[in-house]
Amino acid sequence: MRVALIGLGAVGRGVAEMIAKKGLGLTITGIADSKSGCMDCNGIDPQRVLAQKKQTGACGDRSITAEDIIRDAEYDALIEVTPTNALSGEPATGYIRAALSRQKHVVTSNKGPIALAYKELRTLAQENGVTLRYEATVAGAIPVMHTLEHGLCGNEILGIHGVLNGTCNYILTRMAAEGLTYEQALMEAREMGYAEADPTYDVKGIDAAIKLVILTNTIWGNSVKLSDVDLTGIDLLTPDALRLAEDEDCTIRLIAEAIPEKHLLRVSPRIIEKNHPLVVEGTLNALTLETDMAKEITLIGKGAGSIETASAIIGDLLYIRDRYGKCT
Amino acid sequence: MQIHYFTGGLVQVSMKLEMKDSPGQLVAALKPISDVGGNIIAVIHQRDPVSTQHMLNVQIVLELPEGRLDKLVTLLKNEGVHIQRIGKERLLYKRSVILIGHLMHTDLSDTVDQIDSTGFAEVCELSMSMPAINERSTSRVTIKAVNRQDMESALAILRRVAQQKSLLLIEPLAEEVPCESH
Prior knowledge:
The complex is a heterodimer. Chain A is built from twelve helices and twelve strands. In chain B, strands 1, 2, 3, 4, 5, 6, 7 and 8 form an eight-stranded antiparallel β-sheet that branches. Chain B starts with 9 loop residues before the first strand and ends with a strand. The chains are: A alpha/beta, B alpha+beta.
């Protein structure tokens, strides 16, 4: 199967490396980063492009753009892994739209388009007889969407509870373990590379809420928006709060929850028993799906990382290859 | 904070029963429990080969509407079941929440009173930590209520008060668990 790769940040590099290394039968025919691009219908050597990017800062010809590749390259599936813009969803939404309109499958790790325009994009994919997959948008390496779609098919999903932001989970783990203040734990998270210079998006619970929106729309198709989420972050927590929770064998975690029957769509710090399956350490993510037949299923795994996220993308690509076997 | 007694709730009862170890005996002994509208929570078999001769000792835990216990005892006796011991506990729901903010400046006793004055729920424990004047303080507040619905109402009040007073309220994730009280 031929693929075009848009975005060469941590995720894009991970995908390119794994395609080169693992012999998955995937041929890259176009690659673009934010400044340049390259196209070759006979296949591009990902290692060579990554080396060039490292050396020159650009992956290809500066006169070739992402739009050019999406429009002109010969590919079966587009891998869209540019950075998330939570407000506009662009330019990713435009890229995805263009590829779907060309009857190309799309696999993305980008939360913006899926949170903001899921219904429109899914309809567009259906109209064009192709598929849009986004396993990597929620909980990194954890195969949430595959589990919902296949492992739990036939089940009614009654509710979800999850730890969906590794940065917050790291900060809370460190506050509980070492009695650090929020500020100290945040500083440590920055030093470890787990938090951005501006941590607002993570610590205010926005990132977790976007993932909750994606999950909710996927499961129940109810077109909820970020503004529908009842949102409380972790930035006002005190070390005393964690100590008081600890006195009762509990701790505090940022929990995203959706229970349609109770009209609940909420991200908030919660007191939770330390032996609860959702209490995971460090940057791990966890998600419990409450279902009618299987009852509770909890998935735990890495929520971020270059190769970890590539795992989710490659899972989506191989699913498309197997499902739409006519691709070459 | 004083302990109130509530009416109209469920009572949790534990009983130690002795009966003949013959087929159908246990089922016959458990039937009166559903007859009085009770729910069996646990049945623990104790087959002691040394002390008993063809007798079966069973410990059961059940919950039933208040005021039905005497009737149950009569029914059990009629079935030939010997009741060795009865323990009765009022079934209560208990939840701890954490409040962060300027708790004293926003009148903590009023916050507590908003729960206590409902008559169906009360603050039974309060742990507090105040690092320094003008800094936000943190408090763990434990609430008891007679049933789940009342607990939900109490938490709804607390949510509203926390919002009015700009306090951060951290609620527990798990469903509230029944606990024992006097």
